[in-house]
Amino acid sequence: MADSVETFDYVVAGAGSAGCVLANRLSADPRNRVLLLEGGGKDDWIWFHIPVGYLFAIGNPRADWMFRTAGEKGLNGRSLAYPRGKTLGGSSAINAMIYMRGQAADYDHWRQLGLSGWGWDDVLPVFRRVEDHVEGENEFHGAGGEWRVEHPRVKWDILDRIRDAAASAGVPKIPDFNTGDNTGSSYFQVNQKNGRRWSAARGFLKPAMARHNLKIETGISVDRVEIEGGRVTAVVYRKEGETKRAFVRGEVVLSAGSVGSPLILERSGIGDGSRLSGHGIDVVADLPGVGENLQDHLQIRPIYKVNGIKTLNTEYWNLVSRAMMGVNYALFRKGPLTMAPSQVGAFVKSSPEYATANLEFHFQPLSLDDWGHGLHRFAAFTASVCNLRPTSRGSIHMTGPLAEDKPDIRPNYLSTEEDRRVAVDSLKWARRIVFQKPLEPYRPEEYKPGAHVASDEEMLVAAGDLGTTIFHPVGTAKMGTDDDRMAVLDPRLKVRGVDGLRVIDASVMPSITSGNTNSPTIMIADKGAEMMLQDAKSR
């Protein structure tokens, strides 16, 4: 039996990117008592803060929930690791640190779906107000917010030559991906400050930790929310073998991400009625969209060997060079230890039929077989490319009624003809860029999938062999209009049919944004907190 503990105005389940923002905003008023629950531990490990630490964090159970997908037909039967951050700050503590909003058309599409208040003109002011851009305030960027944005602090000649090659292939060089149209090539802006990772915990949670009205619990597992008379009354969670109940007089917010939030909903009796009944769970709200509509950016990772130019591979395996990397970082906070996994990006159309760029390249001056494994011992770069707006839809569901039960993750990659066609076209685009004249002096050689892969059929098989998640799952508790049967939330992020319960994280997206998804999640959280505080005033 759960022990009765405290009563709060707000309980936030999940201290990832969204949860850190929510905890900050909801506790800013000292009259609000806020409880923040996090399944991982404190972010007191050195590799959460040195940018290159993602190499050690991904695939490490100290930092990663170590989820896996089911075998994927589109990936030739392979099961993928599905990394999610396991600490304060969530995936923002282990991700690529890339600051990317997507395209104006993404948000205008949300508005066209009937989601008023979610168009580009609505969300741009939110992006700006949370931002602290290194170049200061202008039409597109903000200054003085909590979300620090800087330029990379390391340069690689190979990446400059790749940008030259992309220009030769018709991809213009642009200064900024975050103005609403990201077509072209540029260096990625990053969430760092003076050479250190700037996670959501550092930006939003740490400044709020001294507030007496904010309580933070780590190392817990959220069992369920309790609902009486159609309204949430408490959150039941476990810590160190003890079951606790946090009562709530205001609202509960699920911000456990696209994996965690739908599972908590299902354990609470909110989801597809037949599915829940099959697990012996009483149905509180029959919402068939819970756990459905999963979208993710599948990255296909062609690798090219090069000669006569440095890459991180060769520098890493040279002991002297590696030692100098440490010195450069210790003294100046510069060099390869400040690297995001990708420094240069390019956005292009896979074919003229698309109105805006639908492919994103992440060019990396390194290569490896998989994140969490060592770098290759030869000089190489990776031309990772993903379909920004996949039409494939997957799902994430419970496998049992306990928080400890592993989720059933089925992204359903490459399950549509359009996605398969775009995958083939993306590999052709990689070759179009790599074999331009600016890279000729370095004699690029396709290591994967290899020059022998020539036909569309062979390329599709190669895409299935090389494809993996780029860590952008969204959509599993999507917002929508009243006539959308699969909508879990209304446009104000309230769970349909249950009072006092919202979901605010990447799972609310009805369709995935055209780029990296962490900063859009930050925006959603800030906008969602604003909605909550507005609604509280009207009660």
Question: Structurally, how many domains make up the residues?
Answer: 1
User: pLDDT under 50 segments (min length 5)?
Assistant: none
DSSP summary, beta strand count = 27
Count helical runs: 13
Distance between the termini: 33 Å
List keywords for this structure.
539 residues; FAD/NAD(P)-binding domain; seven-stranded mixed β-sheet
List the helices and strands and how they pair.
Blueprint: E1 3-13, H1 17-27, E2 34-37, H2 54-57, E3 67-68, E4 81-82, E5 98-99, H3 104-112, H4 120-130, E6 131-133, E7 147-149, H5 157-168, E8 184-187, E9 189-190, E10 192-193, E11 196-197, H6 200-205, E12 214-217, E13 220-228, E14 231-239, E15 242-254, H7 257-267, E16 270-271, H8 273-278, E17 285-286, E18 298-300, E19 303-305, H9 312-316, H10 319-332, E20 344-348, E21 359-364, E22 380-387, E23 395-397, E24 408-410, H11 417-434, E25 445-448, H12 456-466, E26 468-469, E27 501-503, H13 518-538
Parallel strand pairs: 1-2, 1-15, 2-12, 6-7, 15-27, 16-17
Antiparallel strand pairs: 3-4, 5-9, 8-20, 10-11, 13-14, 14-15, 18-22, 18-26, 19-22, 19-25, 20-21, 21-22, 23-24
Molecular structure report:
This protein has helices at 17-27, 54-57, 104-112, 120-130, 157-168, 200-205, 257-267, 273-278, 312-316, 319-332, 417-434, 456-466, 518-538; strands at 3-13, 34-37, 67-68, 81-82, 98-99, 131-133, 147-149, 184-187, 189-190, 192-193, 196-197, 214-217, 220-228, 231-239, 242-254, 270-271, 285-286, 298-300, 303-305, 344-348, 359-364, 380-387, 395-397, 408-410, 445-448, 468-469, 501-503. By secondary structure, the chain is an alpha+beta fold. The protein has a single domain (7-538), classed as 3-Layer(bba) Sandwich (FAD/NAD(P)-binding domain), CATH 3.50.50. Helix 11 crosses helix 12 (456-466).
